[in-house]
């Protein structure tokens, strides 16, 4: 018995140490590396100081209304996500839209200091009754899968456009991208096919899991997924698609504000690949996510526009509007949760 306790004690300590390393060492280290790389790219841009001055003027210029529209779309963005969660969570517990909205923002706060935003699930289930929380996690995962399917689907379309863009010789000196784009394209296509099949065959998937030796430990919380029908799943996918369009409109607005000249097709295809990269590469903290967002945006959008400073500013603006502001609001909402008041 003592040996077993000793074993689990060390497992807990090891997990704690891993979390400390990810959150307080590896995450900031990756962010510093990416920030240094981006800094060098900014300095290589011709007359970048004048571009930076133009950005500061743009914030106070005639196009500043676009920034406010992007901020208003942040409410639409998280409102759509809240509606998705309300739809799925009512399988175990009816919940008001306002409560779902508060849960979504609280999840954003909890995600801000956890690897790969896994704290988002914890933040949301705090608004669910105690006996339903494990089932709520599995239902929340369905929301995440739906958004991931839309991200991968749009990413595949964006990769097709980038491949055509490169093959036409529009971008010189980037032949190496052909290999990586093809590798990413076929890999994502395979993952997308599996996800779509599993998403619309949840009862079949649970039937397979029932035959596994460990099924008794996990089937309880996920058994609720058998009650999903195609109508609800399509509704969740549709809301995920509309939310994705909101992302694209926000980026297009900020690109216009900061002088990044792109057509709608270039902005949509370029950012769909950026979102794809963000989805497949793990992040440790908000800082790591910011650095990766900067780097991916510059590398992809630079194929269409050389205004690196403007791309940098737009990416930072979206990060601030869509993640930091909601996380700050969610931190205030946490104070109203009975669990934290106790």
Features:
342 residues; mainly alpha; globular; disordered N terminus
Q: What does this 3D model show about the protein?
A:
By secondary structure, the chain is an all-alpha fold. It has one domain (64-341). Helix content is 80%, strand content 0%. It is built from 14 helices and no strands. It has helices at residues 2-44, 48-59, 64-89, 97-111, 119-125, 133-167, 176-200, 202-210, 215-222, 230-257, 264-280, 286-301, 308-334, 338-341. Helix 1 runs parallel beside helix 12 (286-301), helix 6 (133-167) runs antiparallel to helix 7 and helix 6 (133-167) crosses helix 11 (264-280). The longest helix is centred in the first third of the chain and has 43 residues, at 2-44. Mean pLDDT is 77; it is low at 1-15.
Helix and strand sequence: HHHHHHHHHHHHHH
Number of discrete helical segments: 14
Rg measurement, Å: 22 Å
Number of individual domains: 1
Helix-residue proportion: over 70%
Class by SSE composition: mainly alpha
